[in-house]
Amino acid sequence: MVGRPPLPDDVARGGARMTNGWGRTAADMLDGGTPNELLGRTSWTTGFETLDATLGGGLHAGELTLLGGAQGLGKTTLALQMARSVARSGGRAAYVCYEHTEEELLARLLLMESGLLAPFDEPLPRHALRGGDLSPDDERRLSEAGASVRKYGERLRLVRGWGRSGQGGLEAVAEALDGAALFVDYLQKVPTDRPGADEDERVTVVVERLKDIALTRDVPVVAIVASDKSGLASGRMRLRDLRGSTALAYEADVALLLNDKMSVVARHHLVYGSPDAARFPEYVVCTVEKNRSGRAGVDLEMRKRFSHGHFEPLDRLVAERLVDDRVYVD
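Now predict its structure.
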């Protein structure tokens, strides 16, 4: 039969088990546990209850999640906060960043931890994270933040992305993941072994590699993706507006798109003076635009507390009508 590879010599006929990379029979797989156990998925919490519920428990092994949005909407903050939640809940995470050093990521994490520990206090001053003179209160809060990070710090690895050939540091991290959720900040900066290729080709190589890591290492992979010019000019950013090839939309299992609430809320909420309109600028809308294993087209809102280095963990469904309700559905 044309196009069908021959079975290896040691694969027996007559109902015997297939071996040597030819998969497993359904019967053999059922021998590994009950159907309920076999169908259960390992989940890693994002730290946001409504988002976890929408995703069916959180981030899942073998899935690639893309996180996109315009600059300044908190993509790095959200991804780092998710990685913190994974580690804090007992899992392990590796945060590979091509934008910031490990020290800068740790400073962000300490600011985040301090803000979450004392959400109604003034944020730690920036100089507190750069070794400046501290007041006794700032010294206490920084010490408390450090003690909190130490409780899960062994399970959260911060990595400065590097490499000029192959996948650089990404390959080394993939080899050492050993069950850790992988966060990549950000996808377009991951080096490839095709330096002369255009961006679409490079993005295709990287996104396919990230999906392969998720599947072969059986871990969730979350990658921040930059916006194309079309996304910056449009009223509401969508999956189609992410920078790179169509492979992004094809390979992703989950796509989370961030938009400023003030920019995407329907006009009548502003014109007719919704009682909550004054607080719209405080929120980012996170749209679950693609979700292969659950609901898509779900709009959540998260309150920005960027001076404290985090989003409030109490996310909720958006009550108002938003502009451009069309979403990408796989």
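The first strand starts at residue 43 and ends at 44.
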